[in-house]
Amino acid sequence: MKQLLDHFSWKPSDTLLSLGCGSAWWEVNLLLHQPCREIILVDPNTQQLSLEDVQESIEYFEKKLSLTFSTQVQIYHSPLAQVPIADQSVDGLFVFNAWHELAPIEEILPALKRIIKPGGWILLEEELSVDLRRIHEGCAQELYFQEEIDRQMASIDFPFSQKLVKEKQTFYLKYVNC
């Protein structure tokens, strides 16, 4: 997480969104270190994302870090294309280890283009196929090659901006809205 905070930043006035966020464990931890005005959490799985789970994460990290969580939280259990978010109202979007699970991508990409402000960004933390096509151990979905994600993002005018290695085959990939 320190590497993420050292290389990617947002402003306290920003509105961020996390797609496929599960219980928002990573988001809460990040936003305690570097708050924003609002985080919109989107995960269609009501078993994974609930206000109670988010509150438990907040309480856990507040106690562990002796910090106070100040970011407003909104939760949606709908597909992204159906979430009532105003056009060009999101400054940045996170997808933590979930891009390979999101479908149908043909509906998600236009929604991303619609809601993210010009100059806004998408940050993926994603395990990738590098030499050969790999399968994600946790969900049995095929993992993308970076070139495939680059083409997806380019199709909505979000060119590749930055890449950091997190672990052997897990990377942070940043794309910026032109």
| Structural class by helix and strand composition | alpha/beta
Q: Name the beta content range.
A: 25-35%
Output mean pLDDT: 94
Output the radius of gyration.
16 Å
Helix count from the secondary structure assignment: 5
The rounded distance between the terminal residues' Cα atoms is 27 Å
- Give the proportion of residues in helices: 25-40%
Q: How many strands?
A: 7
Point out poorly predicted stretches.
none
Rough outline: globular
Major sheet details: 7 strands, mixed
How are the strands ordered across the major sheet?
3-2-1-4-5-7-6
What characteristics describe this protein?
single chain, 178 residues, alpha/beta, seven-stranded mixed sheet, 5 helices
Your description of this structure?
The chain is α/β, with parallel strands linked by helices and 178 residues long. The chain is 28% helix and 28% strand. The protein has five helices and seven strands; from the N terminus they run H-E-H-E-H-E-E-H-E-H-E-E. Helix 2 crosses helix 3. The protein is globular, with a radius of gyration of 16 Å. The two termini are 27 Å apart.
